[in-house]
Design goal:
The longest helix is centred in the first third of the chain and has 29 residues, at about 1-30. It contains four helices and no strands. It has two domains: about 1-60; about 60-120. By secondary structure, the chain is mainly α. About 80% of the residues lie in helices and about 0% in strands. Helix 1 runs antiparallel to helix 2 (about 35-60) and helix 3 (about 65-90) packs antiparallel against helix 4.
Length: about 130
């Protein structure tokens, strides 16, 4: 089950990245928006796409979206901070900047998957009928 979820998670990530870049470049080159605004638009769309596809496709969650969305945004922040920490650690250790980005990216993907699986879209325990916080 976890291997299938990981595969679907990676598929969502590839799709999400392609759409995010399409939005970023479309905003910049078709709509004439600044790179900063275009980047924000792409990432906001990416967060929405990622949340929706991971909820319904990757983890097949039936829970209400409100609480999951809050946890999703918190998980994103934690994963980003893990990414940044890994990047800074690699750079401090003298690893080439390009390889440091790759290592940080792997940390981000792993953290995001684990947080989504075990925190954001977790299933209630057997026999429990309480709503998730």
């Amino acid at each position: 089950m976890i291997v299938g979820q990981l595969f679907r998670f990676v598929l969502v990530g590839v799709f999400n990245t392609a759409i995010g870049y399409a939005i970023i470049f479309g905003c910049m080159y078709l709509l004439g928006m600044s790179p900063v605004v275009s980047n924000a638009a792409g990432y906001l769309a990416g967060l929405a796409i990622s949340f929706t596809l991971n909820k319904v496709f990757t983890f097949k969650s039936k829970a209400k979206s409100g609480a999951e969305l809050g946890r999703f945004l918190a998980a994103f922040l934690v994963a980003y901070l893990a990414n940044l920490g890994a990047l800074l650690a690699c750079l401090r250790l003298g690893l080439h900047a390009g390889w440091s980005q790759v290592v940080a990216g792997v940390v981000y993907i792993a953290a995001t998957f684990l947080l989504n699986k075990f925190y954001v879209f977790r299933l209630p325990s057997e026999g429990s009928r309480q709503a998730l916080p």
